[in-house]
Amino acid sequence: MPAKAQPPSVLALAAALALLGWPLLFPVAPLYYQVFGMACLYATLALAWNLYALSGALSLGHAAFFGLGAYGSALLSHYFQWSPLLTIVLGALASVAFGVLWGLFFRRLRGVYLGLASLAAVEIPKVIIDNWDSLTYGSMGIMGLERLPVLSLGAWEAALGLDLKAQYYLLLILVLAAALFSKLTMESRWGWALRALRENETAATAIGIRANRERAKALLGSAYLTGVCGGLYVHILGLIEPALVFNLHVSALPLIFSLFGGRTWFFGPVLGALILYPLEQLVLQPLFPMVHAGIYGVVIILTILFFPQGISVWKKAT
Amino acid sequence: MEKGDLKNSLEVQRLSKRFGEHKVLQDISFSLPEGEVLGIIGPNGAGKTTLFNIIAGWISPSEGKVVWRGKDITGWPPDRRCREGLARTFQIPQVFPEMTALENVRLGAWFGQDSPPGESQATERAHNLLEIVGLTDKKHTPARELSLMQQRLLELARALATEPQILLVDEIAAGLSLKAVNRLTELIVRLRGQGLTLLLTDHLLNLVVPVSDRLLALDQGKIIAAGPPEALMRDPRVESAYLGTGEAAGEEG
User: Fold this and answer.
1) What ipTM was estimated for this complex?
2) How many domains does chain A have?
3) Which domains are delineated in chain B?
4) Across the interface, do A206 and B142 touch by the CB < 8 Å criterion?
5) I need a surface site. Which of A63, A135, B119, B222 has the fewest CB within 10 A?
6) Helix/strand/coil (H/E/C) assignment for every residue in chain A
7) What is the pLDDT of residues B220-235, one digit of tens each?
8) How far is B252 from chain A (nearest CA, A)?
9) Is A13 contained in some domain?
């Protein structure tokens, strides 16, 4: 038994079933497909961010991985006309390459110093891409990126680019797979090594855990998955520009969703994204069109003050 | 590399450490044969903890070597030393605060070797070790809720779970009551009886003296005396180092 009271996995399963099933009841609800699809994408992003955070490293610079994955995919798609599904998978390797540099240069940084360095690190790829006009079209970006393709299997067809319901299911499957991976990771020997590093790196080193190696694996896995999210994002929108993907918002949201939902429960980051993003988009935006995004600031302050472990483990805090 | 005539032992060869101008350790050499218990004593600031940390791999020496079973391990990081059989504990206990006592010890069993045991085997070993150190009833308590004494015992169990050939124990009695120290002494005597090689440091003598085969007295970064505990305790140099009077204090002058 873990020391902290965590919700049972059956709750996550129930949430997954609800997410799979509700479109059957509401066959025509494009806005909801779109918003919940995006919530699934952000939930995947939060899981990716949290994989690195499991080792105790709180990054404020995941927009770098997001943007590089997005540009990697967009450029491959633009210059070679490969299918976006292929370019997304390959393009995210650019994020991994940046992750290697990150790992080398930030190896010794911890806590707030790592946070500040990672925040600044986003500027490096952004400035390069912003100015390399001949390759990336600079700050103008690329319009008319190829949309996600139509998948067909016999009579069955899923237009991932145009049919919002099909797109929603694609993103839902992605987040459920990522959540399952996260659960298996946290229960594995490697997951325990990450937890040990998070709780006490000195003690972890003293009992033989290879701190740098285990953390680097988490970083690179996190970078790759974040890059995939970036690629999906720009092919869903159909356009890319540096300010869109190398954006503080992109770094902050996964952190907010993870802290709110709970970082130590595998489904916590998903829960955070699935509650907060739709709340912001569907409830607050119509009510307060100018300041709806302010919810994130308010939520993060309230979370830190009242549920420092996140809402999924809040009972323990009382 | 020097020949290692005592194959299965730790050898410290001409170790020195400077922090800037300050010489913390000067030309320290000794060896620790298998199965022996060596106590390093000395007043606060004598360099015990620095020496200890160099042997455990947390600080690198300015000069000299640490040789372990004939291999020069001076450049090895601490996690590798642990996996190869040198485990340590800390003066201020370093536990995984949110994990239970059982989980803490199990991690030692799980990561302390290059060929790790399976999860159930690691758990079983953790149960046994908690029993040995007397923490069975705290099995499911998070480590942060344990007392100082209990955290020391937990750390000891976790270090033993890595199956060390030599255990380095830093100031285990610091801050504990006499009763607690007596309990620890008993435990260490028991471990010694099982053939474990031990290196202990302490500035208080109640624990180190009764359990050590040999003592090494440090003062101001140098070895001032070495030998069996009874002889060393009567050594005037040791006495003056502890009391801070007489020749030892005058020498540095």
Assistant:
1) 0.90
2) 1
3) 1-78+197-253 (3.40.50.300)
4) no
5) A135
6) CCCCCCCCHHHHHHHHHHHHHHHHHCCCCHHHHHHHHHHHHHHHHHHHHHHHHCCCCCCCCHHHHHHHHHHHHHHHHHHHCCCHHHHHHHHCHHHHHHHHHHHHHCCCCCHHHHHHHHHHHCHHHHHHHHHCHHHHCHHHCECCCCCCCEEEECCEEEECCCCHHHHHHHHHHHHHHHHHHHHHHHHCHHHHHHHHHHHCHHHHHHCCCCHHHHHHHHHHHHHHHHHHHHHHHHHHHCCECHHHHCCHHHHHHHHHHHHHHCCCCCCHHHHHHHHHHHHHHHHHHHHCCCCCCHHHHHHHHHHHHHCCCCHHHHHHHC
7) 999 999 999 988 888 8
8) 35
9) no
